[in-house]
């Protein structure tokens, strides 16, 4: 008989009481996330139900919905609306640009080409956010490469016409909504490509063949077979593009007009203005919007594609 | 006589499900023991109760007389060949085989020798440096076997050992396992849902259903003298005859089984019963005829070269009286 | 018959999309060499290497870099421990609240960074914790856990349960099984997760602006230059270096987890 000399009482105990091991594994991460993160979220939520005393500028620690009421003031309401519209525009545009990349990578790229596509999306995704924003500051500058290229092809008149449009135009691209939109689109695009590609990978090739076989044209196959099946991936991607745009405060600060987005309002109110309750109430807005969005997405089965 | 494995009123419940329900069982030392049953019958849970991956809800498990159900798997004198082999993908074949010796602190040279010897025993000498991924299914099975046997277990447990192999390989492995068990003299306990495998390899078979052992006996017992309708149905292709059928033959009223190959065809009125031929299935060596006798549908196997009457014809059926086996209901 | 080759339109749209993703980053590389130091003039009037030397001699850049490396290393170490423990628990057993645990891990990255940032800031305020390197690390580790967790969970799923049973069946106790079977099989996934966590922390700016006191990590340094450009040529060089520094862990993580399902972009 083999001698079992390397016995270990602790190991035996884990066999007898597997729940103890489970509890020991879970305790550190749950304590960390529960205390540091959930605790912080609760603190934030709590603050939004306080208000600021307009005369002294001090926080009045009494439960009130007054601060949420302030969100409905036209100036604040505009900020919410502007941010939501921008998030929607960025989401739609990134879905349009992402689709051909994702579809080509999922359906036609094989072997090395597939690895190339994967890395070609991963590298911009993971490269520095600030550097990407900085790159667009260079591109959109008046003396920068875009103006130069537009002049080069003799399209300055078209660019000027675009910039003279009301609301979205401006003195130059770098201080217009168009500029803000372009940077958002650029920075969040990879977050749309990856889930979209993941859901397209799961469309079996023989479904497309079946659609062909049944007499559908390429366009019909795209509309009736591929797009519906790619929908969960597209929704998953839109969760990223939408949420990230809602919460960003750096891009509109660097590139764009002087009008605020939610993130900037949060940053300004908690910082220089010192109105923490209003900042907290502003921060709750994206949480609520994303909550509704996630709830709708869950019903469409988008989470399987994440 | 000492028993290799003993179950004393063992139960294992998962919530409301009684996977193993009050089972008592003795496995004789040196036997080749099969646990046979459909999936969900409790046979695999029984095996896992021996290896220690499950703990009994009630009752005791003893291995060679020593109480085992309080010991974790690493302290039981048994080893397992897993259904999916469970080879360690990051280790070479040799290190896989030597794993059990390594964790017990045996020195490198001696465990290397032991592993090589064991690989020779399972006819895999020269494969020591490969990774499991570079082996075929049959070769992986042999590595799994060597990895378990190198620890000199008192009982070797095999979970559906041949399930993943193709037919030819399975038959060859059956013979090899049998020979190996004989030469090593170790008690083998294996789980299978394949009655052919159980009957051809084991010297004792336990048939499981609904968490209980419904029959325990030699392969011949199980096959020729099924105790219940379930066993008759599950093991092979016996006709299960209702009590009315026996009464109509002037026999005592009870359920009975009758193997299809025990029935032969004769002219109407010349056999024990007459019936109407309703269909024929060609099975290679035999034609399996379906014959309706009263309310009962009987299968009868006749040699493939014998003439087959036309469907709808009336035929006589005859059998040796000893082939009709009376059994309890249930 | 559906053609196995993409139409020209699809192909050009796909590659145009990739160009859109990469040209701006390539532009950074050109600007690092420009002789122009007051505007973002294109094309560059001339090329020079002198800004590399200037940047090399800038103590503030070095300090910011050192702080970023320190923060990223410690955050990654914490995230490695917590993320692995969590992944082990979730993939090992079915228990009540398992879904909630996965959600909890993902939440810090799923909610906009500004919410994580301001939440932590108000909590530190309430708790009277002074803003310091420690508070930066607390924030970073919180959102780095998910990256390690995602990588580890995917790999744990590939270790079949019977492999762990086989180890104990062969006589190994729980610690031996962890050392000889679990660790070798999840090692590369942890390394990849750690690299990605490092890259994530090294680059983070939004949460950091809320949790830092007077300390400047490299992204904070860059943000200040972006808002109020004072050192354009130095910023250009730093931007290029940051791109190169973050590419390495990404490529490393990719090669470590090839063939697996880890590193999917959703983890960022």
TrEMBL record, chain B:
This is ABC transporter ATP-binding protein. It comes from the Bacteria. Residues 5-235 form the ABC transporter domain. GO terms for biological process: quaternary ammonium group transport. The keyword Cytoplasm does not apply. GO terms for molecular function: ATP binding; ATP hydrolysis activity; transmembrane transporter activity. Transmembrane segments: none annotated. The keyword ATP-binding applies. Pfam families: ABC_tran, TOBE_2. Gene3D superfamilies: P-loop containing nucleotide triphosphate hydrolases (3.40.50.300). GO terms for cellular component: ATP-binding cassette (ABC) transporter complex. Keywords: ATP-binding, Nucleotide-binding, Transport.
Automatic annotation (TrEMBL), chain C:
Keywords: Cell membrane, Membrane, Transmembrane, Transmembrane helix, Transport. It is found in: Cell membrane. This is ABC transporter permease. Its main location: membrane. The keyword Membrane applies. One of its GO terms (cellular component) is plasma membrane. InterPro entries: Bact_Polyamine_Transport, MetI-like, MetI-like_sf. Gene3D superfamilies: MetI-like. It holds the Pfam family BPD_transp_1. Belongs to the binding-protein-dependent transport system permease family. CysTW subfamily.
